[in-house]
Design goal:
heterodimer; A: about 90 residues; alpha+beta; about 25% strand; elongated; B: about 140 residues; 9-stranded antiparallel beta sheet
Chain lengths: ~90, ~140
């Protein structure tokens, strides 16, 4: 991994089109500003990992799901409570 | 017309006009061209064109979660090339939950059905989780 030291207000450039700016440093927290082309997705790493795992799980379990159950759920007539909520 | 042999769907015939491009990709799935096919109504398949055995079950979330909703950022609207809400379809992936089914409400798929462009977005909204059970 490339390691660089930067100060508040300084920036990094990745390729032609991505700039990461150090906006503010407060103790152990760093506030970053990122300029990148809009089609480049930017995630917090821990959320990206969870999203990736969730998608892989969705592929894996797709043939095991009791989908008939949820089809029945949606075809079931509404309960009185749901009906009331709709009117509110 | 593309014809592909698959384990799961047999020989799959795909029209170029039904292919949905995901320019930002789908995390964990190394493909960017997908199709949506009916499974058991209202459930559908989201199938990777380049490896149709990579497929997941998806459903429109609004019948199961009537209060579900989110706003799209200007960037996402522009990627989708959406001029109105009517052009857009929303799906969530189905997952296992004990012996039932759950939905990933945290990262819905939004598809512009006219322009055939899709994105999977990640919602900041704390009310929505990656695995929300669908009640029987």
């Amino acid at each position: 991994m490339l390691v660089l030291t930067r100060r508040s207000g300084q920036a990094l450039r990745i390729g032609d089109s991505i700039i990461i700016k150090i906006l503010e440093i407060d103790g152990s927290q760093v506030k970053l500003g990122i300029d990148a082309p809009k089609t480049i997705p930017i995630f917090r790493e821990e959320l990206y990992e969870r999203l990736k795992e969730s998608n892989i799980e969705a592929l894996r379990v797709s043939q095991e799901l009791p989908i008939q159950d949820i089809v029945n759920t949606v075809k079931k007539p509404k309960t009185e409570l749901e009906d009331k909520n709709d009117k509110d | 017309m593309i014809k592909i042999k698959t384990d799961r769907f047999g020989e799959l015939q795909i029209n170029e006009s039904e292919i949905i491009h995901f320019p930002m990709g789908i995390p964990g799935i190394p493909f960017d061209r997908f199709i949506v096919r009916d499974c058991l109504d209202p459930i559908k398949w989201l199938i990777a064109v380049d490896d149709p055995d990579a497929a997941m079950l998806i459903v429109s979330p609004f019948k199961y979660f009537p209060t579900y909703g989110f706003e799209l950022s200007d960037e996402i609207v522009s990627i989708l090339g959406a001029e109105s809400e009517e052009e857009l379809e929303v799906y969530v992936a189905l997952l296992k939950y004990n012996d039932g089914v759950a939905a990933n409400l945290k990262s819905p798929f939004v598809i512009n059905k006219n322009k055939r462009i899709g994105v999977q977005i990640l919602l900041e909204d704390e009310r929505y989780s990656f695995k929300e059970p669908i009640k029987k």
